[in-house]
Design goal:
Layout lengths: L3 E5 L4 H12 L3 E8 L11 H12 L3 E6 L1 H17 L6 H20 L4 E3 L4 E6 L2 E6 L16 H4 L2 E2 L7 H10 L3 H5 L14 H8 L9 E5 L4 E5 L14 E2 L5 E7 L4 E6 L4 E7 L2 E3 L9 E6 L9 E8 L2 E11 L6 E6 L2 E7 L7
Parallel strand pairs: 1-2, 1-4, 2-3, 4-7, 8-12
Antiparallel strand pairs: 5-6, 8-9, 9-10, 11-12, 13-17, 14-19, 15-16, 15-18, 16-17, 18-19
Helix pairs in contact: 3-4
Length: 357
Amino acid sequence: MRKRVLLGMSGGVDSSMCAWYLQQMNFEVVGITFNTLSPLSSEKSTQFIQDAKDLAAKLKIEHHTIDVYDDFKREIIDYFVDEYAQGRTPNPCVRCNVTIKWKLLLEYATTYNCDKIATGHYVDIAVRNEFYHIKKGQDPSKDQSYFLWNLSQEILSRCVFPLAKYNKKEVKLKAAELGFARVSTKKESMGVCFLQGEDYRDYIKTNKPESTGNIPGCIVNESGEKIGTHEGVAHYTIGQKRGLNLEQNHGEYVAKINANENTLITSPKNKLMSDSIIIDDFMSCDPNYFNRVQKADARIRGLDAVAPTPCTINKVENKLHIKFSEPVWALTPGQSVVFYKNDIVMGGGFVNEVEFK
């Protein structure tokens, strides 16, 4: 009998073509689409659900739509707004992995008697020391490994990633060749899914105007002198210069956000460098990995064009002490630092406190 695989379908070209590639791999595909949008969303906003249904019908595969908006709002949207209000820069895609997307894929795989789970990510699976790891795919411009560092062994052991060996151009050309005109020409969704292209600051103002992160306050320099006013701490992140309402052109950047005092502290750009950091919320694919000092490449942003920074990782009393080979700029509380050996994700963690030089 063919193995059944549960495929997360978003209505885009990647997950849609993933269904076709899985069929070529002799899987019996079951599609599932999680509706994370409010019931008040427009017909245009919910078109992705219909696109997924239409593609599933063309390929003659079983398809299910599951409404998860309430959970998504609580776990992702509220977290997103609240993190900014606390002076942190959230990583909603990483949080969504363990609270919504992959958690539910695993649960519904059991519900629909599926052996495997799949998505349209351009990544692969590698096994090292009998543990499963995420590995970068063939297309560096679509590498999404950074966002998947916190997937459990239970999930990774069941994952199939058909797009790992392809690049985006090949996938779109194949979609057009197969006659999937809508998905092959569809504009790619970038950034945070629920923002739908909207600036996050405007989103916070509109969707949670009562948030303390929207209350204007003072901007002070590193000497404590007031040099301007801000629109609310939720509207800023470490390293930001745009939007600072300074009394003079001081050439200052946001260096620290004190949410309790509703204050931004600024510094010159060259002072936002860090050569070390301590992480207390982390995970590794191999539970033995951090038991000895490790050399790795650290990636501190998602699809950032900046090359990873070599680092040394030393675990001390359940905290990771990270020493970078060269200082990195504007590390931001709330964001992920992900550790690689060659093209393989070894683990990662969330930035907590940051001390600049």
